[in-house]
Amino acid sequence: MLSDLHTKRADSASPLSDLTRDYAQSLDAQDPLRHFRQEFLIPSKKDLKRKTLAAPDENDEEDDQRSIYLCGNSLGVQPRNVRKYIDHYLRAWALKGVTGHFVPHDDQLLPPFVSVDEAGSKLMAPIVGAKPEEVAVMGTLTANLHLLMASFYKPTQERYKIIIEGKAFPSDHYAVESQIVHHGLRPEDAMVLIEPRESQLPILTTEQILRVIDEHASSTAVILLSAIQFYTGQYFEIEKITSYAQSKGILVGWDCAHAAGNVDLQLHDWNVDFAAWCTYKYLNSGPGCMAALFVHEKHGKVEKDKIGTAEQAFRPRLSGWWGGDKQRRFLMENKFVPQTGAAGYQLSNPSVLDTSALAASLELFNRTSMAQLREKSLKITAYLERLLKYPPESLPKRTFSIITPSNPAERGAQLSLRLAPGLLDSVLEVLEEHGVVIDERKPDVIRVAPAPMYNSYVDVWEFCQVFFKACRLALDTRK
Length: 479
Ligand SMILES: Cc1ncc(COP(=O)(O)O)c(C=O)c1O
Known about the structure:
Blueprint: H1 4-12, H2 21-30, E1 40-41, H3 45-49, E2 68-69, E3 78-79, H4 82-96, H5 116-128, E4 135-138, H6 141-152, E5 161-165, H7 170-182, H8 187-190, E6 191-194, H9 206-215, E7 220-226, H10 238-247, E8 251-255, E9 274-277, E10 291-295, H11 352-367, H12 370-388, E11 400-402, E12 415-419, H13 424-433, E13 436-437, E14 439-441, E15 445-448, H14 457-478
Parallel strand pairs: 2-13, 5-6, 5-7, 7-8, 8-9
Antiparallel strand pairs: 1-3, 4-10, 9-10, 11-12, 12-15, 14-15
The structure holds pyridoxal-5'-phosphate (PLP).
Pyridoxal-5'-phosphate binds next to α6 and α7.
Keywords: Cytoplasm, Hydrolase, Pyridine nucleotide biosynthesis, Pyridoxal phosphate
Pfam families: KYNU_C
InterPro entries: Kynureninase, PyrdxlP-dep_Trfase, PyrdxlP-dep_Trfase_major, PyrdxlP-dep_Trfase_small
């Protein structure tokens, strides 16, 4: 029996009773956020194996039939109320056609189409510690990084470099590289990669990052880092790094893909210059749903009295009509005056379908707070770490190691586990067979992310039982 592996050891040693399923259940019972789990459609084990999509009866699934879904760092699960939001959108479109842009309804969940972007900003801002005017829900992550760099990366003879992690997510790497080339520069000269000292443990210390900033201080225009590193799960010291780089005259941007909805960011107070993130991970908006960006209020000013003069009235950017002054939007004057703040970075009228899906999830986040979610996240990830530190005695010590920092302040929900060589494929097979959903980064890392919004302590406990068994089987078959 699968669960015997771990319960036996725990039962035979009473000081380790916090390793039992009962203990996990008791933690769930005390969890003040536990009711949120019911707001989500977590795929059942049966549904993960089905070959058709027809007639899933999502309401019939008992909790213990649900998969052990620890993959919110990749794709969040569907909030139940997405259907309601999308249905409202479909009805508004069907009943009102183009007039749906302007006609409010007594029972609307979101304002008329033309104002839906404002609703998005209001719902999103508290999640990243921003003012609503500093956030725009728009575009996609990589496209937003490009738009932001188009505005913030203005290479000069003296300052032309962009500093980025050597192991940045490929899309960020390509975006930076192509921006540099776009400006007629060579990545060999202008792209500074911060490389981890050990490729086996790709953690960057703050000191190392500050040292690279020092080395390139006078020639760097922008530093773009990930708030939480996708591979290691490392949560960087955003405030410290931002203020240090800014003290050297460098503009600082953060890719918050793995941080938004995961940790309690304070983008405004930390004085971040710009940031962008997707919404399909911890923010549960659905695959490829629209993203968001942050522009600090100090950069979003529009000085109306300077418009038409030789002086710069607003930060230059790549523009589209939706970023323009709302009062004049339909006058078709072809004189671009942006809206104040991040909204002035919008290009196109937003997808109301996308915004509806996203708003359904953001509404749940707004029923609690990132501070509360982070509090649970710290506990549930610490619990995962604790269980992983007590594998059954039959498992050799070097079967796996946790590469995510052990300091809770330096990580979010995710723990990345490096397996001994040759184990990954068999481990993944067993995890899948038992309805565990996590993701892998070949050749040997799995990423496990208990999302505080919907994961339970029992999920974590179950994962560890299956994982230990998977490791045992993988070791046996490798021999
Ligand atoms: C850190 C990071 N940057 C960029 C991307 C690319 O996102 P998108 O395809 O939405 O542009 C991802 C996607 O997972 C990511 O994790």
